[in-house]
Amino acid sequence: MLAALIRFSRSCLRATLATGTFVVALSLTASTASAKDLSHRLGIGFKNQFGAELPGIALQYYPGADLGLSAVLAVDTQKDNSKFGLMAKLHRVIFHEDNLHFYMGAGAGILSVENNGKNDSGFELLGFGGTEFFFSGIENLGFSFEVGVGVTSLSSNVRFRTIGDSPFRAGMTFYF
What is the pLDDT of residues 117-131, one digit of tens each? Predict the structure, then answer.
């Protein structure tokens, strides 16, 4: 029991140090970032926001400067533990900053999770706020962090949760 507690404490310390290092690096480089007009631009990248640990490929499109649409497809075909998710999201940029965009949005999707051969299927709903920023020199690559609330309703249960991206779960999108 004590050994497990020590391992858990060490992993928490490593995660805290990694997050702190990322925040310090971000604050030191924030002055070299710049906001982008993403009107009529299509992006492809990844996001990890399903109720199950399920990273997905994301398409993002901005029909105007303040409105964004995205879709995320995630698949894991592990035997007896497969997962599938498909989500659509709507973003509204609420504040443009010199080095990033602040936005709010909502998302809805379907999720299917298989545990030991038993399948649970249902839906997810999200409400979120977030930021997307760009570094100079790589202006087509956006990094995003989101926080909010979500509801996951599977055939076996309903789960209410908070959402918060750490630097290791942050989204990344390349815009064409």
Answer: 889 999 999 999 999
